Amino acid sequence: MSIKKITQLSAIALVIASFSAQVSAKGNDAAAAAIAQLAKIKAVQAQGQKNLLNFDDLDFNVYSKQRWGDMRKSHAENITVHNADGTVTHGLHDHIEDLKKGFVNMSNIVTAHPIRITDGEYTAVIGETETTLPVPATTNADGSITPATKKVIKGSMVTVGHWKNGVMDEEWLYY
Fold first, then answer.
1. For residue 9, what is the enclosing H or E element?
2. d(C-alpha 64, C-alpha 113), whole Å
3. Of 44, 95, 104, 134, which has the most beta carbons under 10 Å away?
4. What is the value of pTM for the model shown?
5. Cβ neighbours of 152 (radius 10 Å)
6. What are the alphabetically sorted keywords of the record (predicted)?
7. CB under 8 Å to 48, separation ≥6 — which residues?
8. 8 Å CB contact between 92 and 68
9. Which residue has the higher pLDDT, 172 or 39?
10. pLDDT value at position 99?
C-alpha cells in the first residue's frame, strides 16, 4: 500500500472517529434529555396521585363528616367553584357556606370513587353518594311536621379540579 493511500485511509479513519464521537456525545445528550423528560413525567404523575389521595380524604372524611375546617387541606383560600346549577362561588368561606346548605335536614355522604383520573394539573373523580332525607323530623314553614323517613337516595356526582401547589384553585361540580 502506498503512503498516499495510508494517509487517505488514516484521514478517513480520523473523520469516522471524530464523527462517531460526535454522534456518541449527541446520543448521550439525547439520552440525558430523555431521562430528564421521563423524570418530569414521573413527578407530574406522582403529584397527580397525591392530588387524588387528597381528594379521597376530602370526600370521605372532610365533606361526608362535615369537617369544614379541614377544607384547607384540599382547597385554596381563593378557590373558584362552578356549581351544577350554574352559580359560581369565589373564596373558600363562600364555598363552605354553600356546601353546608346540602346538610340542612339531611345527611350526605360519599361512599365510593369508582373512577379517579389525573392528567397534569387536573383531576376528575366520580363520587357515589347516599343522601338520607330528612334527618331528623322537620317543622315546615306552615307548622306541619315532616317525619324522619330515613329514606336513602343513591346518586352520583363528578368533580373536576384544577390543582396548584397541592390544593385546588378551581373546581367544577356536576350532580
1. helix 3-57
2. 13
3. 95
4. 0.76
5. 11
6. Signal
7. 118, 119, 120, 123
8. no
9. 172
10. 94
pLDDT at residue 3 tops 60: no
Give tens-digit pLDDT for 40-99.
Answer: 999 999 999 999 999 999 999 999 999 999 999 999 999 999 999 999 999 999 999 999
Concatenating the DSSP letter of every residue in 84-129 gives TTS-EEESHHHHHHHHHGGGTTSEEEEEEEEEEEEETTEEEEEEEE
Instruction: Please name the amino acid found at residue 113.
Output: H
What is d(CA 44, CA 158) in angstroms, rounded to the nearest whole number? 22
Nine-digit cell string for 158: 363528578
Pairing of strands 88-90, 75-82: antiparallel
| 21 contact partners, CB below 8 Å, separation of at least 6 | none
Q: What cell was used for 108?
A: 350526605
Give the pairing of strands 167-174 and 145-146.
unpaired
Contact predicate 100/68, CB 8 Å? yes
